[in-house]
UniProtKB/TrEMBL annotation, chains A, B:
Cited Gene3D superfamilies: Dihydrofolate Reductase, subunit A
Domain named Bacterial bifunctional deaminase-reductase C-terminal: residues: 3-188
Name of the protein in its database record: Dihydrofolate reductase family protein
A Pfam short name: RibD_C
Organism: Sinomonas terricola
Length: 214, 214
């Protein structure tokens, strides 16, 4: 039962991008950042519901598989659910599709008015709560029933949990691109490595996978 | 004949550290940042004049060898020579020892009063000039006589040359540590990769070597 963070970041450390628009809510840069991940067979099956069997099956795919394995609950920020983009739409159900890839309880951190949970197809239920990282983690650990809890993001939420010392495993997939702007994962994390062992592996795609494990 | 930059940076992108004192001009963090490089046989021979044959001979050492190979002239900032730390000492000869590892002409960029060149043992001569990156590079290319020119650093100088599009090859050795402060190499370099092919290799030490080549 571990608390895990998995994020895609650029070589200059940005975990989010700065070119989002309502028409292109992920932005162009996001595609560049996650291209190798999106190309994996696991992402295509799990997120795009593509049963063709196409997609890469190398190092990136092994991390994509691990991303989804053994997760019993997820915590994400309001921005990752899309509440910041659609704050006044009580019917907004997130931009993860009718059958989101999580297939677990997902706890969405928000300071806005309470919302009822949303049950989606495939096993995902979104719960909304205003809570500290510790409180949210308690809820998620209970829901995970012995499995791992993933802090899904975005970068600010992941950093809050890292700074609070709540994360057992941090995996970053570093794309060899420079975004020059966005939210930095690494701000205010001096010496983070001292509590972890760190391993690094380069994928065929050129993505560098760095893993911090307690 | 290429213009090259080689730098040691932290995972959070800092190429210089923030804990220098007159007593410890490199600082504690610097040791952590360059530990794997200092452990190489090449560094021990070339910089420490240690002829014992000790030191690592793996991936890090191959980059250390390449660091010194085929360089005909070097450009560095005033800080890397130590002028910022000893601005009023006309007899300051840099903190690279009596026999500096460069063994080529070294052009030190400074806006302070002109200084005469300093000829050191082993083939290194320090020249001081107030010049744009383009002007300094012209001088260095002439002095290099067909060999490579290395932009030695610090981070701000390296970034100036990268931003000006003057660098053919950038190699960064990324230590899996978070410094949380210092000077960032990657600021204002959005899209740098578009003019280069990028390769990545992980050393036995855990250092990730990323190379941008035109």
């Amino acid at each position: 039962m571990a608390v895990r963070v998995d994020l895609n970041i650029s070589l200059d450390g940005f975990a989010t991008t700065a070119d989002q628009t309502p028409e292109n809510p992920m932005g162009e840069d996001w595609s560049r950042l996650v291209a190798a991940y999106i190309a994996t067979r696991t992402f295509r099956e799990r997120v795009l519901h593509d049963a063709s069997g196409e997609g890469t099956t190398g190092v990136d795919d092994s991390y994509a598989k691990a991303y989804f394995a053994e997760v019993g609950a997820e915590i994400m920020g309001a921005g990752m659910f899309g509440l910041h983009s659609f704050p006044d739409d009580p019917d907004w159900r997130g931009w993860w599709g009718d059958e989101p890839p999580f297939r677990t309880p997902v706890f969405v951190l928000t300071h806005t008015a309470p919302r009822p949970p949303i049950e989606m197809a495939g096993g995902t239920t979104f719960h909304f709560l205003s809570a500290t990282p510790e409180e949210a983690l308690d809820r998620a650990l209970e829901a995970a029933d012995g499995k791992d809890v993933r802090i899904g993001g975005g970068a600010t939420v992941a950093r809050d949990f890292l700074k609070a010392g709540l994360v057992d495993q941090l995996h970053v997939a570093i794309a060899p691109i420079l975004l020059g702007g966005g939210i930095r994962l690494w701000d205010d994390l001096r010496g983070l490595e001292s509590g972890y062992s760190v391993t690094t592996e380069v994928a065929e795609s050129g993505i560098t996978h760095v893993t911090f494990r307690r």
